[in-house]
Amino acid sequence: MAAGDTEWQQRSLAEARVVELVKQMGDPRPDDINGWARAAAETAAGSGSDVYPSGIELIGIEARQSEQLIEPFGALTFRVPAADDPAVVGDPDGDDPAAYCFTVAFDYYGKAGGETPSDGINSIDCPPGAVSVTPPPDTTIRSVVSANTREAVTAVLLERLATGAPTTAAEVEAAISARLEQPAGQYEVAAEPHALVEGEGQSDGPGAEARVGVAVGTGDDCVLVKSENGAVADVYAPRVLLQAGELGCRPETALASDEELRPPH
User: Fold this and answer.
1) One domain for residues 146 and 81
2) pLDDT-derived band of residue 98, with 50, 70 and 90 as boundaries?
3) In this predicted structure, what is the pLDDT of residue 105?
4) Residue 34 covered by a domain
5) Quick one: average pLDDT of 165-193?
């Protein structure tokens, strides 16, 4: 095989590995290129795939200005070692092994530059002296469901049944929040509870026997608890019904009927 053919083959194999890496990076929908850089670094550090093992290095993170979600807000540069094959151009076992470099632009939704997996994977000359770069940590504050959320909600609703307090939805929410454990993550905060007390706002006000629904979290991680007929019970709904546009992770969902909570066909 001619040297040119071997070079083309090796570059094609290297490109295929980058294509596979990008496919495995998931769909984090980050606010900037650093989010995609973290996804790339985590994926490259993992097991990769059976067809294209990893070994890919992230050697560049470039931020760009963009006005719309579909405009690239940055690009990543990858270095891929040449395949360990005797026909490889260069010496993979030497001090200066052959490698191939590629740059990939990303927008909010993912890889930019086309519809097919290889579109937007642009081959470049490897920058001399380039070294691996570590993406900056994610400092986004995220609300997560505390480990003791269900227990905290249940305790407050049982207390309300026994004593009549806390009375209003705001008071129920405050009492639950006071019991929630703080998440362990450095940039995590406890998800806020949302309560609905039936009869609140009426002239005589809600009594201890009033139905109460509580929801904490989002459609992907939702805790629902209700107080009804003198008892407190956990409520479970199909995940599809907890998404936005459906019933949602809302206190009203905790008070929904069994028929309303049936899985869709």
Assistant:
1) no
2) confident
3) 97
4) yes
5) 96
What is the domain range of residue 228?
142-254
pLDDT at residue 223 is higher than 60: yes
95 and 175 together in one domain:
no
Task: Tell me if 52 sits within 8 A of 20, measured CB to CB.
Answer: yes
Nearest by Cα to 33 from 60, 58, 56, 61: 61
What is the arithmetic mean of pLDDT over 13-38?
91
Last residue of a domain, one of 68, 97, 124: 124
Q: Are residues 87 and 146 in the same domain?
A: no
Do both 31 and 91 map to the same domain?
A: yes
Distance CA 9, CA 19 (A): 15
If asked whether residues 95 and 163 sit together in one domain, one would say: no
**What does the DSSP assignment read for the chain?**
--HHHHHHHHHHHHHHHHHHHHHHT-----SSHHHHHHHHHHHHHTT--SSS----EEEEEEE---SSTTS--EEEEEEEEPPS-TTSSS-TTSSS--EEEEEEEEETTEE-S-SSTTTTEEEEPPPTT-----PPP----EEE--TTHHHHHHHHHHHHHHH--S-SHHHHHHHHHHHPPPPSSTTEEEPPEEEEETTTTSTT---TTS-EEEEEEETTEEEEEEEETTEEEEE---GGGGSTTSS-SSHHHHT--TTTTSPP-
Instruction: Answer yes or no: do 11 and 109 share one domain.
Output: yes
- Tell me the whole-structure pTM to 2 decimals: 0.66
Residue 40 shares a structural domain with residue 73: yes
Q: Which of 64, 92, 124 is the last residue of a domain?
A: 124
Angstrom distances, CA of residue 252 to CA of 2, 194, 206, 225:
70, 10, 16, 10
Q: Both 157 and 116 in a single domain? A: no
